[in-house]
């Protein structure tokens, strides 16, 4: 069984090859050309390079996802004494039932977990059994009809919640000003949590540094080096944080105070903007504050992205502008916005009032 997954594990493991620096997989030093003494040595070195470039083919986030899916699939195959590759359509149907009845996964999760079977077969040069298979599609349709396909988005961050959070932070503390700055960056920038918070070790050139913050006469601009939709350094994206003088939710004021803390302690320009603030530390503190204030919503990193996008929609911002600010390449932004029921009533009432009385 182990030999069947070797190609896949090479692709999704954390790279240990020379040239890996954690920034989206690898870097390439064009100054160090391959040296070789014979054709066999050249072949070996080129083969090593091919493995390195394959390992860089997926982002670290995608690799983590596939590692989780692979572990689940391996466990299932061990329980039923099945080979991972090749895998029959009948066994795929059994795996789908396993994901529903044993793992209690949602429908969308089940569909995603089938991806590892496709990739395992492609990595081993074997035709994958899922695409276009009538039997598998019928089982998936049955699962969808049985358990539903409703997807509940993250709880919305709102201006009211932001004010509660601010009231419970000590903005004279560097740790708390980091948390407050992160809140406003996520809300105003419609940011994914991975864009402004690190989940593990800080990674230079990927996580936001002090030098990525630029002063503007109307506030500050934060330059993102890497996002989910910009993984090949083909362009940089700017997060605009306006100055709203005297407003409790002014993001420029928070960034100004944060920079003041950094400069006071002599921080270098390549130091992390949010110090050592991790995703887990941030979310834990935010939810702790909300719980202590009897707020029932459980906040996640995506709460800021959804909340900001929904507020943009509420104030009448155009769809195209919401997509631009949130860096959406498709209409996926629609899953992040939530139309307020009172706004729908207002629109329908306007519709009714415009009708002729008789």
Draw up the topology in text.
Layout: H1 6-12, H2 39-55, H3 60-80, H4 89-101, H5 107-113, H6 115-123, H7 134-147, H8 159-167, H9 174-189, H10 193-196, E1 213-216, E2 219-224, E3 237-242, H11 251-264, H12 279-292, H13 302-314, H14 319-326, H15 341-353
Antiparallel strand pairs: 1-2, 2-3
Describe this entry's structure for a reader:
One of its GO terms (molecular function) is DNA binding. The chain is mainly alpha-helical and about 350 residues long. It folds into 2 domains: about 1-145, DNA polymerase, domain 1 (Orthogonal Bundle), CATH 1.10.150.130; about 160-340, hpI Integrase, Chain A. About 50% of the residues lie in helices and about 5% in strands. It has 15 helices and 3 strands. The protein has helices at about 5-10, 40-55, 60-80, 90-100, 105-115, 115-125, 135-145, 160-165, 175-190, 195, 250-265, 280-290, 300-315, 320-325, 340-355, and strands at about 215, 220-225, 235-240. The protein has a 3-stranded antiparallel β-sheet with strand order 1-2-3. β1 and β2 form a beta hairpin. α4 (about 90-100) runs parallel beside α7 (about 135-145) and α9 (about 175-190) packs across α13. It is globular and about 65 Å long.
């Amino acid at each position: 069984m182990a030999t069947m997954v070797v190609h896949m594990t090479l692709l999704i493991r954390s790279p240990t090859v020379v040239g890996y620096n954690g920034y989206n997989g690898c870097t390439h030093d064009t100054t160090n050309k391959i040296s070789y003494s014979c054709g066999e040595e050249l072949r070996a070195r080129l083969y090593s390079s091919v493995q390195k470039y394959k390992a860089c083919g997926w982002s670290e986030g995608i690799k983590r996802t596939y590692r989780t899916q692979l572990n689940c699939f391996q466990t299932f195959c061990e329980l039923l004494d099945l080979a991972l590759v090749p895998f029959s359509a009948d066994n795929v149907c059994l795996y789908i039932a396993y994901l529903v009845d044993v793992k209690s996964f949602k429908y969308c999760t089940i569909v995603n977990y089938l991806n590892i079977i496709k990739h395992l077969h492609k990595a081993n040069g074997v035709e994958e059994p899922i695409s276009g298979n009538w039997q598998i599609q019928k089982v998936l349709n049955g699962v969808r009809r049985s358990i539903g396909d409703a997807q509940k988005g993250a709880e919305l961050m709102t201006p009211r919640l932001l004010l509660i959070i601010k009231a419970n932070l000590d903005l004279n503390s560097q740790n708390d000003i980091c948390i407050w700055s992160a809140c406003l960056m996520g809300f105003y920038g419609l940011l994914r949590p991975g864009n402004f918070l690190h989940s593990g070790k800080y990674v230079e050139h990927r996580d936001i540094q002090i030098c990525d913050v630029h002063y503007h006469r109307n506030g500050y601009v934060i330059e993102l080096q890497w996002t989910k939709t910009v993984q090949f350094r083909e362009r940089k994206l700017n997060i605009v944080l306006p100055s709203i003088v005297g407003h409790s939710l002014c993001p420029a004021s928070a960034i100004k105070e944060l920079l003041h803390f950094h400069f006071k302690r002599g921080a270098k320009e390549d130091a992390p903007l949010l110090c050592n603030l991790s995703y887990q530390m941030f979310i834990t503190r935010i939810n702790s504050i909300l719980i202590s204030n009897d707020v029932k919503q459980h906040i996640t990193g995506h709460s800021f992205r959804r909340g900001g996008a929904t507020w943009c929609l509420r104030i009448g911002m155009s769809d195209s502008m919401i997509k631009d600010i949130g860096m959406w390449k498709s209409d996926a932004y629609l899953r992040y916005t939530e139309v307020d029921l009172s706004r729908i009533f207002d629109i329908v009432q306007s519709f009714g009032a415009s009708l002729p009385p008789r």
